[in-house]
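Cont'd.
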Amino acid sequence: MANGGDQFGLAERPDSDCMDSPKQTKQDNPGYTINSPASPQTASSQQGMEGIKVSLHDRELWSKFDDVGTEMIITKAGRRMFPGYKVKVTGLNPKTKYILLMDIVPRDDHRYKFADNKWTVTGKAEPAMPGRLYVHPDSPATGAHWSRQLVSFQKLKLTNNHLDPFGHIILNSMHKYQPRLHIVKADENNGFGSKNTAFCTHVFPETAFIAVTSYQNHKITQLKIENNPFAKGFRGSDDNELHRMAKLQGKDFPVVPRSTVRQRACSTGSPFSGEGRGLRVSPEAVRSPYSCENSLNNSSPQELLSAPPAHYTLPHPHLQPSQQPQVYHCTKRKVEENCSSGNRTHQYKKPFTGSSSSEGQPFYPPSSFAPPPTALSSNAALGLTDSPYSSDMGQRQACMFAESEPRSLDELNCASWSYTCPLPSAMTPMDSYPHYSPHPPYSSSPQGSRLSGIAHQSSPLLGEHIAHDPYQSQSSGPLSQSSQNIHSRQVSPPLREYPRYTPNLSPPLYHTLETHIRCGVPEWSAAS
DNA sequence: TCTTGCACTTT
DNA sequence: GAAAGTGCAAG
């Protein structure tokens, strides 16, 4: 995030050398390639991923939220993110097929509270939720397809239901998270389960947020109302609103719109008062829900970003106002030989259909736990195979990967791509949903080692590696030690223990892609 | 803190 | 017109 660390009241790590990375304007924020640390396995096997650039759509809007401290509502039924996560991808090989997916990982291991109009750490984080991946429903698609238009992950939903059966991304309330985009080169089978699957990871720090069940910061509420078209009903700027409010309040017209009331209330005690940040939105902004051209903030993004943080003591690499996403490139190493399961190479594949939109419909399993399509069941592929959803039903799926390790791709190393489940099983009503197990997520064990390679991200917390790893190849001095560690991780990932999931505590749940249950117990969840 | 029903909105 | 996405406010 731009300077979200301050808004979240965070004192992050002091070793943030990556802050030296060059800035870019918010209008031009392509990802930049971070070369892998010198490693025979990776340095020569980027496979064309290094040229990929990703820019965040509506970055100004994201930054506005980030400047305040983005909050995302999580509900039992699942809630979309707003602003929506949309990116422009360039640099892809037009004919090569890629799989685009997202995950949302903890930014740190803190729990937060909102008091005195600011976020402060209130304790240690709850054990992380089961990590899930949201695969863009168009996946796999050619580079030409992805580059043709914005790639939207808008339909991704967040939930606080630990047993969510819909494949939504499970988060803990009052915890801070970082969305990440992964671009994976599809293999010859339109999957990414084969050897040497190349991928890169893009992180836009300004998209970090704190998950909440209800908004804490009124500034965030206002930003949501003023920018999200679905919340238009809460905008208090016209006669209709006044009439509506009059009706709601049982008073005669006119009445003071709620937003105005809130604004006044905030202006008295909020640290944001007197900042020239009116809460009313301009007509232009109202007409363009995704526009950043509202009147909420008179400051330029740069000004906002450069403003000294109110409670931001130590800069963190991914919290500093870099205009660039952090990009990590990695190439899947060869499938480990010590797979406990004989058949580990489950493919994630689906024939490319170039006609679909990049904003295709994600697939949310019906609440009725309907059986999986037979076409899928007959397909020993993971999510991207031919399916009624992608063809007959004219609807592509967004596949959710649940990992036994809630740390998600942080520890999901390249090899783990090979262990994705066959879609049939993944789309089958669960009889063994991986119940969340409250293990400390950041301990270590050999199982975790497999998860640590992806994107060169191997440390437990996003901020501990994403912030460092990508830069060390370009940084020197203070990061030298870290760089050394990273290098060694690539060759021999660190040992780390991951939470286990008791596969028999939940009622049958329709899950999408639970990589750890039906894949012959991948090594990162098999230890026990 | 969280859930739920509501009115209102967009799609 | 229906379905789905919003924040609000009561509980």
